Known about the structure:
This protein is mainly β. The protein has one domain (5-24, 64-292): outer membrane lipoprotein receptor (LolB), chain A, CATH 2.50.20. The chain has 1 helix and 16 strands. The strands form 2 sheets. Strands 2, 3, 4, 5, 7, 8, 11, 12, 13, 14, 15 and 16 form a 12-stranded antiparallel β-sheet that branches. The chain has a 4-stranded mixed β-sheet with strand order 6-1-9-10, with no helix packed on it. A hairpin with a 2-residue loop joins strand 7 (167-177) and strand 8. The radius of gyration is 18 Å and the shape is globular.
Amino acid sequence: MCRAANFGIAKMFLLAGCLLAATHGYTQSPPGPSGAPGLAAEPRKGAWAPPDIDESVPPVDPAAKCALPEVLHAAGARLTELLANLDKFTATEQIEYLQVNRKGDTLQRRLRSYDYVVSLREIRPGMLSAEEFRNGREGAQFFFNDMATNGLPALVLIFHPYYVGDFEMTCEGLGNVNGEPAWQVHFRQRPDRPSRMYGLRVGQRHYVLDLRGRGWISASSSQMLRLEADIVTPVPQAAMRRSHKIVEYQPVRFEKQKVDLWLPARAEIFMDFRGHFYQIRHSFTGFLLFEVTTRQEIADPRPPDR
């Protein structure tokens, strides 16, 4: 599990993602270029990862005016509602691990499925905690080449009212996700605020990584539809040159409560780490909601209304 006790924040609170890696059995390649040009949802042909988040701005409607404070307030309200309705959920998680070369050709592939449990809760006013379990074990077991990734579903909490102030936010305009209009908001960790969303643990060493990225917030529902993020700078002391993340959210319908909860449907990580290139793809199905009242409902993601 990724901990941040030295930073005065909650257990597992580097909660938008944590890479855990063993320290044995690797040799570090010489430093190379960090990042890649451009922006795309998928790697370009002949490339191992999508281009860097900041090379270009995806197209937006030039006629639409974005009121950023209202957009952030509404998105924060949806996240507050989510945490009020959600204490814990389980799902079937499938993870595809690929080690690729610089051109994106597969060198190794492994596919695994887990019984996956996430708990998101407020442990005291102003502080949230996230915990993950796979097959009943807290998330420190290694999955592939002595690595594990944790915390991706919580990336959306960048836009929660408790943490949105840690980031510089810029509304780029009205874009779309799969044809649905969405406010396109760029974020970047503020240098004068603590970095509380993403971490790297290598052996007993912890590194806190600043994030920059982009969120697409539905113009109609104010729900988060998609997030992409890169680390602000490489971490040469940990041999981390790049970490690019993509998370897509969809509504999960719980009929008995007549409520839709927006939960992660898919997530991807592209890493240049220890001189190797990795693509890690997560998908989630078969959700089981644990309510505060202990009632349960099973549901799968459904496409959002258009």
